[in-house]
Amino acid sequence: MLDDFFAGDPFFGRSRSVLLQSEELQIEVLPLPEQGRPAEFTGAVGRFQLSVEAQPTQVAVGDPVTLRVLVEGEGNMAAVQPLQVDAAAGVKLYDPKVEEEERITNGVYGGRRLFEYILIPEQGGTLNIPPLRFAYFDPHQARYELLESDPIAIHSEGSVEEEGVSYGLSRRDIEAVGEDIRYIKPDVEVLGTGSMLYSSYWFWTFQGALPLAFFALLVWQRHQRRLQGDVAYARQRRAKGEAGRRLARADALLEAGTEAEFYGEVRAALLEFVADRLNLAAAGLTIEVCAEVLAAHQVEAETIAAWRDLLTRCDFARFAPAGGPPTDRAAARRLAEEVIAGLEKRI
């Protein structure tokens, strides 16, 4: 009855799906020249700028120094790999944390990649970090360009060896021992009987809590040492938190942000979660490589398919935004959280 009622209405009438197909496009891909290719070149094509900063540059031995390496410009940001940092002798260097931002300006794709290295001086003195180099191919000039930062000097003070402490007593300290005994109180009634401490409930509760607290402290210290020495364990432990922070930024962009920015955060959360859980290099990681690794770890085909479909949807929305409604983005956000929860149970 309802079909008959709305049959004559142009807005509520029957509908059908129509498949439209565009004409075939041909794209000519030119190979990169071999001549003049720098050793530092890792595949970046476009136009970029390099900035390097270390803070602080005066620290005590054992205190961390943050080395921020920023590469920004126009081009394929996924091809921008972490720069080689030749730390001086006596400096402990940790793998960088990568932050990226993608944008499309006047139809030109680009963005920024920030690499944060942690350096810890293990000896005093002036420790020098040689210049960092980044090479890329400029398609406008049809030649390779090599960017180089200034050298950085870090001044550290102190030593990892602590001086021993003398606990010897002087003669005056020894003589004072005979004078520090409290006098005897003759008024026994004033003292009162009271209750013995060992018969108190709280006394035994406190005594029982001490071994538990000591055991918890040992577990916490072991966990901290493993976080500092085992990179794979540290990345696995922080994977869910990093993905949650990515999705939180996506929530902020759900209503106010652009299509590309929102789906860029969702895509980064999905890819970096897998990279951190499996200790893979996030830079340049592709969907196909991740899918093969997930299959090797016995992840269900349905979960891999949902993860792959959502990443494909994100890439389509980033590079060919259709301006979908906020409900579509909210559904993608919920699906990303469900996929990450499913992957967490398997890897």
Largest sheet features:
7 strands, mixed
CATH fold descriptor of the domain at 41-157: Immunoglobulin-like
Structural class determined from secondary elements = alpha+beta
Taking all residues together, what is the mean pLDDT?
A: 81
**Rg, please?**
31 Å
Number of strands: 10
Architecture of the domain at 41-157, CATH level 2? Sandwich
In which range does the helix fraction lie?
25-40%
CATH class of the domain at 41-157: Mainly Beta
Q: How would the global form be characterised?
A: flat
CA-CA gap between termini: 53 Å
The H-and-E topology, N to C, reads as HEEEEEEEEEEHHHHHHHH
Helix count, per DSSP? 9
Describe what you observe in this structure.
By secondary structure, this protein is an alpha+beta fold. Among the domains are: about 40-155, Immunoglobulin-like, CATH 2.60.40; about 230-345. It has helices spanning about 1-5, 170-175, 190, 200-230, 230-255, 260-280, 285-295, 300-320, 325-345, and strands at about 40-55, 60, 65-75, 90-95, 95-105, 110-120, 125-130, 135-140, 145-150, 150-155. The strands form two sheets. Strands 1, 3, 4, 5, 6, 8 and 9 form a seven-stranded mixed sheet that branches. A three-stranded mixed sheet has the order 2-10-7, with no helix packed on it. A hairpin with a 4-residue loop joins strand 8 and strand 9 (about 145-150). The longest helix has 29 residues, at about 200-230. It is flat. The model is unreliable at about 160-180 (pLDDT under 50).
